[in-house]
Amino acid sequence: MSGENSATYVELRGVMTRASAFGAIGAKNSQVAEDYLKEMWGNEEAGGDGISVNDLAARMGVAASTASENVARLTSWGFVTHEPYKKVHFTAQGRQIALGMVRRHRLLETYLHDRLGFEWDEVHEEAEILEHAVSDRLLEHIDEALGWPARDPHGDPIPDADGRIRTGATVPLSEQRQGEWVTVARLSDEDPQGLRNLDEAGIGLDSQIRLARLPNDEDGAGCAGNTGPAGEQVAVDVQDGVGTVNQVLLDETTANLIRVRA
């Protein structure tokens, strides 16, 4: 996960073009494969060592039986390995395809946000649609036009054209020691409303924040994106560009979107 001071480059043997990756399996099958492999990468990026069929089904939003059928297809195409009742793992080729899809998705999110003016809570769904249609050539032009960005609007690292992805240690805000100033490194894009709540609270990438109070520490009032009891709120101090500190209250779901540099 992103972090400037502790960042390292991980070589993953380059990205693979869609044409060379999928050959003759067909456009419909290639899109299914891309989606599954990208979700597997998301699990691995979060620290997972392989993924169960049930967990993959949950990430894809499908029944376990559907995921099992598609894992069998991915295995037959040489993209993953899987034995009954064990976890699914990438092959070298499958990892290359996944890395290429992550690159596509995050570059598109960045282009939509930086050049077309989409809000950061809007770009994920748009990129999900576009990533299957954009050619490799156009993607390289997008990368160049953006100045070869290292991260997307949510702070997620973008693999470069040589297959390197910059990584660094981050931790959830909830695991951070209270009262210590930290830098926001990544924001999960899985909850658009939560991203809007963070924007309303003045929290974005590179914001300087500190955890002031966890839920149920004490009573509070008012909360960005939350109408529940005060005890369910997370109090966060936010420092603006001129050093002024403001305290905001977030619901737990919104606060859990934040990862900070370790």
From TrEMBL:
Any Pfam family matching the protein: Fe_dep_repress
Which terms are listed as keywords in the entry?
Activator, Cytoplasm, DNA-binding, Manganese, Repressor, Transcription, Transcription regulation
User: What start and end residues bound the annotated signal peptide?
Assistant: none
Instruction: Tell me where it mainly resides.
Output: cytoplasm
Q: Name one GO molecular function term.
A: protein dimerization activity
Any one Gene Ontology cellular component term annotated for this protein: cytoplasm
- What domain of life does the native source organism fall in? Bacteria
> Does the keyword section mention Cell inner membrane?
no
Q: Does the keyword 4Fe-4S apply?
A: no
Biological processes per GO annotation: negative regulation of DNA-templated transcription
The residues covered by the HTH dtxR-type domain are 30-91
List where in the cell it is found.
Cytoplasm
**Quaternary form?**
Homodimer.
Q: Which family does it belong to?
A: Belongs to the DtxR/MntR family.
Q: What is this protein called?
A: Manganese transport regulator
Which organism is this entry from? Schaalia cardiffensis F0333
**Taxon lineage:** Bacteria, Bacillati, Actinomycetota, Actinomycetes, Actinomycetales
